[in-house]
């Protein structure tokens, strides 16, 4: 058999071209599949609920009631009301904290914070979003806003607590929920701990090779809300935060209206409040003292 050099080179070249197109096709399909997954299953990338309680406030020596709230779309939410008993002289508590936790775990993972607020002379209502803990339903952005509204309504209507006695507190994703509520109502104060500017901003940093801003259905645009919020604000963030960059806290502070304060901590996203416990407690106490004086 005689080898035709020119024909052989053409055949080899065509084989390589077919292989190149095959590889490119696989890459395009894979990339497209990744985009489809990101668009369709965003909730799985944002919310990490757990159902089981690991403890209750009673295990920390705190008096509490398990409460049930119903949202505007008929979802039942579980929460804890941790009251501060009146002092013997009849003095009222310094106020009430409405607590919105982050995107992981449930209310039982925030018992240290409940204990802290109790020491600071504050009663607390903490709820689990839909799909978290014992609450019904599945989590989603609009759903968490309905959950926040139900919690506010519970305090104002059922507990008869004036809006000017409610301090709205949010950590991480809960800060975005808290900001939404503070834009909708006017609380006594707002505290945002380790909160991001928006989910698309976070996604663009985690997945710089994907068009996250175009695909994002979940937005939680805290940065856009702050100019519309008119109450005293405390932002707490750490330069060591490996989940939500410190620059997010700085941008939120720059966008906010006065009066506002920035408390810089140390430590990562999840251990920062432990490593900076004394500084954190002092910062919260000072902020609340200024609210008391107003």
Question: If you had to describe this structure to a student in words, what would you say it looks like?
Answer:
The protein is α/β, with parallel strands linked by helices. The protein has 2 domains: 1-40; 49-293, Alpha/Beta hydrolase fold, catalytic domain (Rossmann fold, 3-Layer(aba) Sandwich). It has 11 helices and 10 strands. Helix 9 links the parallel strand 9 (233-237) and strand 10. Helix 4 crosses helix 5 (173-184). The radius of gyration is 25 Å and the shape is globular. Residues 87-91 have low confidence and may be disordered.
Strand elements, count: 10
- The number of helical segments is 11
How is the quaternary structure best described?
Answer: single chain
The number of distinct structural domains comes to 2
What's the arrangement of secondary structure elements?
Blueprint: H1 5-40, H2 42-46, E1 48-49, E2 65-70, E3 76-82, E4 96-100, E5 104-105, H3 111-119, E6 123-127, H4 141-158, E7 166-171, H5 173-184, E8 189-193, H6 199-206, H7 212-215, H8 222-225, E9 233-237, H9 246-255, E10 260-264, H10 272-275, H11 277-293
Parallel strand pairs: 1-5, 4-6, 4-7, 7-8, 8-9, 9-10
Antiparallel strand pairs: 2-3, 3-6
Helix pairs in contact: 4-5
């Amino acid at each position: 058999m005689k080898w035709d050099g020119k024909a052989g080179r053409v055949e080899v070249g065509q084989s390589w071209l077919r292989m190149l197109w095959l590889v490119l096709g696989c890459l395009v399909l894979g990339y497209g599949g990744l985009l489809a997954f990101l668009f369709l299953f965003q909730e799985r990338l944002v919310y990490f609920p757990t159902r089981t309680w690991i403890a209750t406030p009673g295990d920390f020596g705190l008096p509490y009631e398990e409460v049930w709230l119903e949202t505007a779309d008929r979802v039942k939410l579980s929460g804890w009301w941790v009251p501060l008993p009146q002092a013997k002289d009849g003095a009222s508590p310094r106020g009430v904290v409405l607590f919105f936790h982050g995107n992981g775990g449930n209310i039982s993972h925030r018992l240290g914070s409940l204990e802290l607020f109790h020491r600071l002379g504050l009663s607390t209502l903490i709820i689990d979003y839909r799909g978290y803990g014992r609450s019904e339903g599945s989590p989603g952005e609009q759903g968490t806003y309905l959950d926040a509204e139900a919690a506010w309504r519970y305090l104002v209507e059922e507990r008869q607590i004036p809006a000017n006695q409610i301090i709205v507190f949010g950590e991480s994703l809960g800060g975005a929920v808290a900001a939404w509520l503070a834009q909708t109502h006017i609380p006594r104060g707002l505290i945002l701990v380790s909160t991001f500017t928006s989910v698309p901003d976070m996604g663009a940093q985690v997945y710089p090779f994907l068009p996250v801003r175009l695909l994002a259905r979940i937005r939680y645009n805290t940065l856009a809300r702050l100019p519309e919020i008119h109450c005293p604000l405390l932002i707490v963030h750490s330069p060591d935060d490996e989940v939500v960059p410190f620059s997010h806290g700085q941008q939120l502070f720059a966008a906010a209206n006065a009066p506002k304060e920035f408390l810089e901590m140390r430590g990562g996203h999840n251990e920062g409040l432990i490593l900076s416990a004394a500084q954190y407690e002092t910062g919260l106490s000072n902020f609340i003292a200024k609210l008391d004086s107003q």
